[in-house]
Every structure is written in C-alpha cells, then in structure tokens.
Amino acid sequence: MITSIAHATIYVLNQDEALDFYKNRLGFEVGDDMQVEGGFRWLTVYPTSKPQLQLVLAEPKEGPMFSKDAAEKIRGLIEEGAFGAGVFETEDCRKTYAELLTKGVEFIQPPTEQLYGVEAMGLDNSGNWFSLVQRKK
Amino acid sequence: MVSNNKLKRLHASRDYIADNFQTSLSLSEMASQSYMSQYHFLRAFKESYGETPNEFLIRLRVEQAKNMLITENFSVSEVCEKVGYTSLGSFSSLFLKQTGMAPTLYRRKLWALSSEAFRFPSQVIPACYAYRFLGKWPR
Questions:
Q1: B88 vs chain A: nearest CA distance in angstroms?
Q2: Measured in whole angstroms, how far is the alpha carbon of residue A45 from the centre of its chain?
Q3: CATH number of A34's domain
Q4: Residues contacting B110, CB < 8 A, separation 6+
Q5: Domain B62-139: which topology?
Q6: Of A1, A68, A80, B54, whose CB neighbour count within 10 A is largest?
Q7: What distance in Å separates the CA atoms of residue B51 and residue B26, rounded to the nearest whole number?
C-alpha cells in the first residue's frame, strides 16, 4: 500500500529565482538545497505545516533526461504557461490571496466560488499555474 | 485548532528560530516572539507544525551540520559550534539520533561515495531523480 507522496517536481526556468518566489512570496520553507556531484542542484521546498511533501524545483537542462532540443522546448512550454505547479490549500482563500497580492504574486483569477470551495489561480515566476484552494468543510 | 492570528504569531517564532538557530535559544525567547506563555507556545507550536520548537531547532541544526560536513572542511568541533551547540557530546548524540550515524562516519561515508570533492553524492537524492538528472543508475 502506498501511504503518501514525498516528492513532486515543478520545472522552473531559474532555480534561484524560483527559490526566492516560493520562499519569500508563497512562504514555503526550504527543504534541501545542495550541490550534488555532476553539477546538479537538488532544491526542494515545502509548505510550512507539511514537511512530508517536498516540491522539487528543477531546471530542465541538457543531460541524461533531456536532449538540448527537448530542454529548450520544455523551457518554452514553461514560459507559455503550459504547465501547472499543482493545488495549494489554505484555510482562507480570500485572505491568503490578498496577502500574496501584496507580495507581488500574479493572479489570473481572483477568489471564486466553486463546487469544492473557494479558488484563486496564480502564476509562479516561471509561468507555472497554481490553484489556491479553500476546501468546503 | 489554532486561530489565524495565533498562527501568524507562531510563524514569527518559527522564522525567528530559523534565522537564529546558530545561537543559543531559550524557550522563553522563542515564545516571546509569539507573545505567548512558554506553556501555550509549546502546545500551539506542536499542534500547528507537528513538532516541538526544540525538535524544529534540532532539525535545522542537524540539517545545517550535514551540509557543512560535506561541503566544508571544518572539523566536527567547528561544525558543532557553528550550528549552535557548545557541547560536542550533545551535538554528536543528536546527530546520531537524526541520521543514524556519528558526524565523522557520516562525513567519511558521503565523501567516499561522491566522485567530486565537497559535493553530495547522487545517492542522497531519490534514485528516480538521480537517474533522470544525472544518469546514475541506483547501485
């Protein structure tokens, strides 16, 4: 039986800038930030109250996984907003939305009533979409 | 459940701990950042974050120590001091408890695994990532 998810990947254009965004704007904590052999930077962040789920902030670069062409295509797709970072939950969507706006987070949809709760949609500084959701109780 | 206002105050303490973990921090000093009594602070912190302030502090110190042991050439005593411990014995036993290895053994093992000086070996990250980004098949 699988019990939980420990890591999920968000592809970003620049790890330093993404770290600044997730840490200083969204308020995430840094999990690991280490230089691994082979020039790879292993960088993870997590929401303060959930260290069990680490989000890996990874740059698509030429290497074993991507050819140069594929890495460039992925970067282009990130810039176009083709990818999503996922759904972030909050106790109070409107309040968190207002807080994040003051921190310069860009939103493409303000808090809106949905069947499952209140949801706003934002963009990280690479162009990944994310939902900010307050679940119905 | 902890109220939003209380949570905000707890965040202030948590940030304070994160910013000052290399110094000797007392519970009263941590609690004062949240304007709570030590007792209430301890309870609310554990309820909100799933770990006590001291557990959080130890985790930060050990994580920093792990990093320094691999990427820096400091002695274990120097690392111990730099992450906020005055007693090498306490530091070593907390490190052992968190990682399952004494600091010297941790350093020796990871340095031996890495093909580059002062870099973490790929084995410290999940194999699926090591394979995808570094082309290293798990051994």
A1: 25
A2: 9
A3: 3.10.180.10
A4: B69, B70, B120, B121, B124
A5: Arc Repressor Mutant, subunit A (1.10.10)
A6: B54
A7: 16
Q: CB-CB: which of A6, A7, A63 is closest to B135?
A: A63
Whole-complex ipTM = 0.81
Identify the band that residue B134 occupies on the pLDDT scale cut at 50, 70 and 90: confident
Q: Find chain A residues with C-beta within 8 A of B132's C-beta.
A: 64-65
In a domain, A44, yes or no: yes
Q: Which residues span the domain enclosing A95?
A: 7-135
Angle at B96 between CA B91 and CA B100, to 5 degrees: 160
Pairing of strands A54-58, A7-11: parallel
The total domain count for chain A is: 1
* In chain B, residues 49-88 whose CB comes closer than 8 Å to chain A: 49-50, 67, 70-71
Q: At which residue do the structure tokens 């084995």 appear?
A: B123
Give chain A's mean pLDDT: 93
One-letter amino acid identity for B125? I
Cβ separation B134–A56 shorter than 8 A: no
Instruction: Please name the residues between 4 and 63 in chain A that touch chain B, using a CB distance below 8 Å.
Output: 6-7, 27, 29, 32, 34-38, 40, 42, 48-49, 51, 56, 58, 63
